[in-house]
Amino acid sequence: MSKSGSILIEDARRALRLAGELHELPPSLSVRANHLINGMCELIGAQNGLLCVMSDFREGSDPEILHSVTGGDFSSVALRGFAEYVDSEIIKDPLVEATVHDCKKPIVFARRQHVSDRDWYGSAHVAEFRKQFTLVDDSIYAYFPLSKPGLIVGLGMNRAWEDRQFGKRELNLVELMHDQLAWLYRQFENEDGIGMPTDKRPLSPRLQQTLERLIAGDSEKQAANHLGLSVYTLHDYVKELYRRFGVNSRAQLIAKCLAFRNGNQSG
Q1: For the whole model, what pTM was predicted?
Q2: Of residues 153 and 242, which shows the higher confidence score?
Q3: CA gap 32, 166 in Å, rounded
């Protein structure tokens, strides 16, 4: 690795080769995104990565992940953790909180540029979630704003908890790749459900599972045990279901959901 952090010729060749491979793959965004993340893991020495489309990505709002693709190396625990991150933990991520206002143009940044070690390791998200569930620590994030305000594509590349932090070389390589991928990012605007009003979008798998357990009569504790989640995380899902269906109680949620299923959407 270059001590100065400069990109070596071979680094640039590998990055541009990866960008070219994406054009040659079948026209499936999930396949292309997964190939991108796997290639980036090899290129910058990352453990894994997540590419996602986010709505309401602006200051004062709670960003929501509408579509996500993972790649790289995951344990079963880490996979469960990333599923929870997609459904609820993103709004607690200190790096998202520190950068949610800064996405008027494409941007790439390392965690240390926006969140100090003290604030990072002192946050509940990192100490209680990343360390125990996703099992990753240092990250490089890249944002690409789409045409609708607040709608962006985000790429996060992560290193394992015990690994060293990303350096300038890795940051420069992600920037180089990010510059080549506008054509791919813009295709996500045409994905089903993206850009639709919140109450018209399909539920994520975790939200759907939570709803099914509530309809089956489970308490939040029982549903959490059944799904292998913490009660804290399950409660976040319940609150999101309330928001999606425009209700304030479990009884109203179940009644409205059953009305939808029976074809009566006025309830």
Answers
A1: 0.74
A2: 153
A3: 24
Neighbour tally for 125: CB within 10 Å: 20
Q: How far is CA 170 from CA 42, 65, 119, 203, in A?
A: 11, 25, 23, 35
Q: Is residue 158 helix, strand or coil?
A: strand
CB 104 within 8 A of CB 146: no
Taking alpha carbons only, the member of 127, 125, 147, 156 closest to residue 233 is 125
* Pairwise CA distance, residues 206 & 185, whole Å: 25
Question: What is the biggest distance separating any 2 CA atoms in the chain, rounded to whole angstroms?
Answer: 65
| Per-residue burial over 135-148, b = 16 or more CB atoms within 10 Å of its CB, e = otherwise | bbbbbbbbbbbbee
Q: Are strands 136-145 and 152-160 parallel, antiparallel or unpaired?
A: antiparallel
Domains observed in the chain = 9-190 (3.30.450.80), 203-261 (1.10.10.10)
What is the rounded average pLDDT for all residues in the chain?
85
Report pLDDT digits (tens) over 55-95. 889 888 888 888 888 999 998 889 888 888 888 888 899 99
CA distance 50 to 43: 15
pLDDT band, very low/low/confident/very high, at 256 (cuts 50, 70, 90): confident
**Whole-number Å distance between alpha carbons of 68 and 22:** 17
Question: Residue 52's closest CA among 136, 137, 161, 142?
Answer: 142
Q: Position of tokens 């940051």?
A: 171
Q: Coil, strand or helix: which one is 54? A: strand
> Which pLDDT belongs to residue 3?
46
How far apart CA 203 and CA 193 sit, in angstroms, is 10
